Amino acid sequence: MLLAAALFASAASAAAPAGGVVVPTLYQAGHFYAVPRTADGQSLKLLVDTGGGGSGGMYWLTQAAATRLQLKTGTCKLGGEPVAVAQPPAYKSGRGLPPPLPGPCGTALMINGGSYDVDGQLGAGYLPGRVWTFDYPARRLTLEGAGWHPDPASHSTALGFQRNAKGELASGFARITLRVDGQPLDMLLDTGATAHPTAAGEKASGTPTVGGYGVASYITTSMLEHWRRAHPDWRVVDKGDDLFGAQRATRLIEVPRVGVAGWSAGPVWFTERPDHAFHVFMSSMMDKPVEGAVGGNVLGHFTMTIDYPGAKAYFRCVTGCTASP
Hints:
The protein has helices spanning 2-10, 63-68, 199-205, 221-230, 275-282, 296-299, and strands spanning 21-23, 25-28, 31-34, 46-48, 60-62, 73-78, 81-86, 109-112, 120-122, 131-135, 140-143, 155-158, 175-180, 183-189, 194-195, 214-215, 217-220, 236-241, 250-255, 258-260, 263-265, 268-273, 292-294, 302-307, 312-317, 321-323. The chain is mainly beta. The protein folds into two domains: 22-127; 155-323, Acid Proteases (Cathepsin D, subunit A, domain 1), CATH 2.40.70.10. It has a ten-stranded mixed β-sheet with strand order 18-19-22-17-23-14-13-20-21-26. The protein has an eight-stranded mixed β-sheet with strand order 2-3-4-9-5-8-7-6. The N and C termini lie far apart (39 Å).
């Protein structure tokens, strides 16, 4: 937590491009993956995850990807801790990534030694400081230019970010407020929230998947139980998602309508997560406590622009949504 604060406080700003930059993207079962190609013809698959980790100004690659690209690695001290880093690869013209904003390690990227089914991630360390449009219906991700203005057909909503005593960004995780059953609900804005529905969960929810994986929104156990008591008619699927294995399968609950930025969409299925995952872990990196995460099964109705410097998100209704009273 202290490391994250140090990283964001010392990250520098950079001018936005004059025009928008469309990021080479693969859209798969509700997830955006950046798929840049290097100058020597190699390709990468990077999950674009507003709710994923990362450090100020940096994105990360797996050690396996860094080795395959023959990147020269080193270390950078962040908050007194050594972190494995490398300089980004040279990308093919028109098929690359917008460069990271300069941070305490310059424009280096982080190296992650874990095992993943992707080559890396563009997350809450890389995305802040700029304006990004996630056009779900068009399956397009754009870094907006300096002349960007909100679409007049969109509705805006405030985003909350954890900040230090100087008002500087201490964490890149965005809090967004939904309305469920007429009540406000603070949530993590999470384009990477992932579902792995069981046969029962897939039959009930109809969640599209590729290789068994799709998108989800999450809710804490305590809030799920609150909804069940208040609305015994809301459908619940026991053992509806087994992202963490069959022995840890969790429930799904169907919420008829969800409000976001003055729009209403639904029904929406929420996947159960333990209270501590959000009340303790995620809330420690946010400006207010959160009850879960809003993911692609809600966001997929919209063209969504996240204005990190302005701390706002803009939603234009495209499909399956209506204006709220």
